[in-house]
Structure formats: structure tokens, C-alpha cells
Amino acid sequence: MSTLATPSSGDAGHQENYLNHSSGIMNWLITLDHKRIGVMYTIGTSLALLLGGVFALALRTELLTPGKTIMDHDTYNQMFTLHGAVMVFLFIIPSIPAALGNFVLPIMLGQKDVAFPRLNLASFYIWVAGAAFMLYSLFVSPIDTGWTFYTPYSSGHSQTAVISAVTGVFILGFSSIFTGLNFIVTIQKMRPAWMTWFKMPLFLWGLYATSLIQVLATPVLAITLLLLICERAFGVGIFDPTLGGDPVLFQHFFWFYSHPAVYIMVLPAMGVISEVVSVFSRKHIFGYKFIAFSSIAIALLGFLVWGHHMFTSGQSAMASVIFSAITFTVGIPSAIKVFNWLATMYKGSIRLDTPMLYAMSFIFLFTVGGLTGLFLGSLSVDLHLHDTYFVVAHFHYVMVGGTINALFAALFFWWPKMFGRMYNEAMGRVSALLVFLGFNLTFFPQFIMGARGMPRRYYNYLPEFQSFHVASTIGSYVLGIGIVVAFGVLTHAAFRGKIAPANPWGAKTLEWLTQSPPTFHNYEEVPEEAVEAYDFDDLEYDPQTDGYTVPGRAI
Amino acid sequence: MSTAAHGGHDDHHAPFLAHHFEDHGHQFDSGKLGIWAFLGQELLFFSGLFCAYVIYRGNHPEIFLQGSHFLDVKWGAVNTCVLIFSSLTAAWSVRCAQLNNQKGLILTIALTIACAFGFMGIKYVEYSHKIHDGLLPGKYFNPSAQALEKAGLKVPAVNIDGSIVAEPAPAASEGGEVVQDTREPVNRRLHIFFSVYFMMTGLHGIHVVAGILVYLWLLKRAIRGDFNSDYYGPIDFTALYWHLVDLVWIYLFPMLYLIH
Lengths: 555, 260
Fold this sequence. Notes:
Chain A is mainly α. Chain A has helices spanning 26-29, 34-62, 73-92, 95-108, 117-140, 153-157, 162-189, 202-234, 247-281, 288-301, 317-345, 354-377, 379-385, 389-419, 425-451, 466-496, and strands spanning 421-422, 498-499, 540-542, 547-549. Residues 1-11 of chain A have low confidence and may be disordered. The N and C termini of chain B lie far apart (50 Å). By secondary structure, chain B is an all-alpha fold. Chain B has one domain (42-257): Cytochrome c oxidase, subunit III, four-helix bundle (Four Helix Bundle (Hemerythrin (Met), subunit A)), CATH 1.20.120.80.
């Protein structure tokens, strides 16, 4: 027997676990336990999602009519800027890695913690500090530059609190870097002896590829923002043409990070989908090595395509052609994943539990988003679509249709492990349906609007677009309700849910083979016996606990 | 590192061995990978500034050539030697730890800190001269007449910010004849050089200060006797960081001071 663990039956509230291991607020605030840090991150990033959502609802409400609806044009600029900045930097970049990655990664490796627990806690507090700076700027003078902070408006002309907001983003960057550093070292140095690279669960491949990007790309954003602050504070003359600078240089620097950043947003999500689709099809993931290598390929290729955000910036035609060509190649590994997930589901024994509903939403919506990315990557087509709602719809399909659906799949999937309690399945499914319907109603009309010429970030618009905007706004309210329902279901479950067994889903990755919630140490000894992560044949269902066990193991 | 005493081990858990590592070697290897990954991202952090330097010097070589005349090569060279020597003491400290030489460890750490303070001291001298001469970054650039004279440039009648020069350039030589001023006029975009100079040396200086703080903490721990031949990871990793800080300066010195 390689694990020492208390029996999986029994009250989650009474058996010793990481939640009741020590009590009091200080034992949470200065914890080194990756699970508690993951829970704190979950709460923090979820609040950020809700805050960013409020800005979205505000700007969508304004767009119900051409001209003024509820706010003036300057406030509108601030709304879309804050929506973007909060969502990108406070929510989506940290979300899956910091919240769920922190919780799950060490247990998936059979370890007691990540390589650098203090660095982990530091990463969380740096996130809080970055959030504080951004919120401060929110109250003093909300930024109106767009989340992309293009110069020379951001470096010289905007009268808003750009420096404090950008300082907040700078600080948040280090939170991301530290998380990435921790994961790289943990995955490389802290695997059980039998867990070679190709025996790792695919979620870890996703997190590893993400971490590579976090460590290599984020420092470039950091220096870019530092240069922006110096330009604004001292007039150094890097980006402002009147001072001898080049505004397009800012765009190059900014997108050199921000394109790889979108792969930070999506690679962990794809890792989640690999886990969920396999478990809920009760079938070995199809094409494991292809999925693993495709994660690395996306990470590497993602560094080479930043210019596709700048086709209309005046960069040379040669550069644009090269960026367009490489952009096409970066779609290939993503497509490989989609085909492999579908092949996994084919002839699988599919259960439509909430995590699977969200995962299936992801596959469909991410595919739409990815395909529309090809439209935008085509140089000639992009000249018409750049800065229109087509772009807005594209990236929301991949970030919301993609990452947010995967986030909810992950939250509903791992919630029983994190809190030892089951959520209400019926209400979970309702949330998935509301999110799916609301999302599509919000963003599909935007593809059409954009192709017909509706520019993004515009306060006023031609009356011919109003029906699309109205549909989109109604959809945004439905989406908002769906997200609130999802959080409501999860919050209720954490406190009042039915006690969960160790392995309610019949999964085979190591976190499911220890109790729910895990003990403080996760595993007293690193498991010595190899476990096949995607082989479900040796699982036995125990109707008493409504959970699964592997004969021969304690759990 | 935190101490741990848990069941499952047959002897008292080694001090400064974190509970999630198998042994000191495991902890050291992991820390080593961690610091190298961190240094990799530090390199990318500085890369933006190096990139800006390459672009602006490539587009405006005359600005950089003129700007470097304002820098004192002597101080730059002294600082380079100071930092290289401090890298030696840093590496030496790792060796002392490996050999369990507690006194040597404390001495070499202290020397490294002293060199770092020396570097910052010289930087302070350089910066204060620049501030005095009005050689500041960006919109604050307003060179004084003395500074321009010292650098061998023609003093304009009107400063870059529009104010009248306090002391107009002397036009007469001995004998009362008016001599043509053949000196180079100050480039009106010269502030770009100083922006780059202050940003690069400033960011580097911040990293030196951070290194000082970490080394002070290590000094305290070394005096306390925390390190030995089994456990000296923090010494090793900090020395690696310090070598990178040194390496960045080794690039900055010729790039800024030795432009010909």
C-alpha cells in the first residue's frame, strides 16, 4: 500500500483535512499550504470576474441606443477600458493556473506542496497588491486608454490615473511570473519516480506550457509598462513622436507579451478539457502525445505571431505577410486538440454532468473562436475587420466561450475535491445552459455587426446596428445571470453540499485517489505504485458512498 | 527554510529542509532550476531596454556619440572593476559554504556587500553631477552651460527648454579677435540619450540594491550559522543572481560610456 489515508467515507466536516487542520484568519493569511492559497486565489479571481462583469453590463447597457443612454462618452471609454484591464490582468491570466493549478498540481503529482511555497504565497499577495493599485486608480481617475494602453494617448494625453493603473498591472505581472516559476520547477523536479513526462496528466502539460510563457513573456510586458510610466512621468521620448519616439514601438513591445498572454489564458483551459472529456466519456484520451506536444507547440509558436495585431499599424508588408503565415500555423495544434477531444468522446460512455456540459460548450465555442481567428489572421481580410466588432466577438468566443467555460468545468469538476461536498447537479446544469445561451446571444450578433462595419470601442453608432446591439445587451444580462447562478451553486455547495466521496467522478489522476477534502499533506508518502491516468477499467463503483475506488489502493 | 517534524521519518528532520523535498540534494536542485528560470526572465526584463537602445542608437547614432561625452569613463571603469571583484567574492562565498568555512563565508559575503555599496556610492556621485548639470531624462533635460563646455560642445544662446543661457559662450580669444566657434552644437534630441542612460542604469541600480538587501539577510543568517556544506542553496542562488547583475553592467559600460 503506497498511501496512508483515512477512509473516504465519513463526514468531510469531521475527518482531518486541510480546511480544519488549523483555524483562525491568520492561519489562512500566512498559510504556506498550496490548497489554501488556491482557495484564496479562487475567491480573489472570482471577485475580479464579477467586477469586470459589472463594467461589461454597464457598457452594454450604454450601447442599447446610439448616442447617450446612461453615460457620457468619456465614461464609456473608461467602462470598456476597465472591463478589459480588470478581466485580462486581474481575472483571466491568473484564474485557472493560480486558483485551480495551485490546488490541484501538487496533489496530481502525489506531492505535499509546490517547490516554493513561500513564493506561492508571495505570488498571491503580489496579486492583491496589484489589485489594490488598479482599484485605487479606479477611484481616483479611471483609465480610458483601452486595456491595450496604446501610445501616444496613454503616454501623454490621457488625463486619467494611467501611472497607478499601469503600476498595478506591472505588479500583477510578477504574480504571474512567480506562479509560472513555481510550476516549472515543481513539474520538472517533483514527480514520483514512475511518473515520466508521458505519464503525467494532460492538465500538467497544459500548466507547464503556460508556465513557460508566463516566465518568458511577462517580463517583456513589465519593461514595456515601465517604459510607459517613464514616458508619462519624465517624458523620456521612447513612444511619443513629438519627443523623438515611435508609437508603433510600443505596440511591438506590448503585443510581444500580449499575444503569448492569450495562450496563458487558453492553455490551462485546454488542459482542463482534456481531463474532463476523458473522465466523462469514460475513455482513454485519444492522442495523448499529440495533445501534450501541441501544448508546447502553441507556447512556442505563440511568441512568433504578435504582428497580427498590427497589420494596419504601418509595419512593412513583408512583416505582415510573415506574421500572417505563422498565425495560420499556430491554429494547427489547437485544431489537433479539438479533434482529439472529439475522438475521445466518440463511442465513449458519456455522462452529461455539469463539468461535461461546460467542456462540450468549450469545444464548440472555442472552435468558432479559433476559426474566426483565421479570418483575422488573413492579412487582406483583416484590413477590413481590424478594430471592428468581429475582433471583439472573436476574442470573446475564445476567452469566454473558451476559458470561462473551462474554468467553470474545472470548478464544478474539482469542487468536490476542494470542499468535500457535492454541488446541486440540476442547478449546475441550469447555469451551464444559461451561460451557453446568454453567451451566444451576446457575441454572435457581434460577428455580423463587425463584418458589416461596426467599429469597436465606439460610443455612437449608426442606427442600422441597433438591433444587433440590443440583442447583444440582452444576451449579456442572461450571461451575467448564468455566471451568478454558477457561483451561487458553488458557494452553496461549499457550505451545505452533500458530503462527497474521494472519487465521485471515477477519475484516475492522483488527486482523486486521496480523500476529499485532502489532508494537510495530501499524501503522507509519494505514491510508489504507478497509476494510469486515463485507464478507467480498474475502477469499481461503491453505491454506498456514490464514489469510485481502485481495488488494492486505500482509496 | 521551515523545519518539519512528522511521522514517516525515522530521524529528526534536517533543519532548513522543507517538508515537501526528499533531501537536501532535491531541495538544492529544485532551487537551482528556480533561480535559473528567474534569471532567464530577468534577462527578458532588461531586453526591452536593450532593444530600445539598439533601435534609437541605430536610428540616431549622433545622439549617442554626443551623449557619451558627458559620461566619465573613469568612474564607469572603476564601477566595472568593483562589480567584477564583487562577483569574485560572491563566487568565493559559495566555495566557503561548500567547504564549511564559516569565517570565510561571512567575510566574502561582507566584501560583496561592501563592493555593492561602493558601486552605489560611485553611482550617487555620477548621478549627483548629472543632476547638478541639468542632465536629466526626458522633459527635465536642461544642460547647464558648464556641462556643455566640459563636454566640448557649443553653448547655445537659448537652452533646450527655451530659457536664455545664463552665461553666454565666450567668443573672444587672446588678442581680442573673434574666433569662429567650431565646436559641435548640442543635438536637440540629446535628452533621448539621457533617458536611455538613466533608465538602464537606474533599473540596474535597483537590482543592485535588491541584491544588497538579500545579501544583508544572508549575512545575518551566515552569522547565525545557518549554512554548511549540506545546506547552502541560498548562497549559491544569490551569487548566481549577483553574477547576472554584474553581467548586465558589463554590457552597460561599453554601450553607454565607450561609444566612439
